[in-house]
Amino acid sequence: MLSKKLEKALNDQMEMESYASFLYLSMASWFDSAGMEGCSQFMFRQSEEEKEHMLRLYHYILEMDGKAIIPGIKQPPSKFKSAVEIFKSVYVHEQKVTKSINNLVDLSNKENDHATFNFLQWYIAEQMEEEALMRSILDRINLIGGGPQSLYYIDKEIEMINQAEAAKEAAEKA
């Protein structure tokens, strides 16, 4: 059974994951309208992944006899300056999520909740992967540079990353 403090913190995390899903969906829309289909598909997949993260929390809270509160989500931005700005903001957002997960781990330790501590280990590994992926994307964008054709090459690079990540996920599910 979850303590009320941990239940609230997990519900807050569920809200953060939900917001990330809508934020990434908004970014996918921006990329799509900019003709960057590879980036759009990548962000759409990221949006779906964040939704899965939220649902994982939802089911865990219920499994632990808690009450999962479906969050109201604030409107994510819909206008962005550039593809580079989007990926930089995603990296910053993922760092924020990592910090929040780490705080949950600390709280589960403080509350002596070993089940929640164990449950959160998946999120720790996931956040390590997410941050590494975003750093890798930013490194590639920096290598491509800001020339006139850079958006085309960025889009193609992200498309290849997306295909590799989708294949990896499919293999893990098989």
Structural overview:
It is elongated and about 55 Å long. The protein has a single domain, classed as Up-down Bundle (Ferritin). The mean pLDDT is 95. The chain starts with a helix and ends with a helix. The protein is built from five helices and no strands. With 174 residues, it is mainly α. The longest helix is centred in the C-terminal third of the chain and has 31 residues, at 114-144. It is 80% helix and 0% strand.
Number of helical stretches of at least 4 residues: 5
Label the CATH architecture: Up-down Bundle
Structural class: mainly alpha
Helical coverage, percent range: over 70%
How much of the sequence is in beta strands? Answer: under 5%
According to DSSP, the number of beta strands is 0
What does the radius of gyration come to? Answer: 17 Å
- Indicate the CATH topology: Ferritin
Question: Stretches where pLDDT falls below 50 for ≥5 residues?
Answer: none
Largest sheet: none
Quickly name the level 1 CATH class. Answer: Mainly Alpha
How many separate structural domains? 1
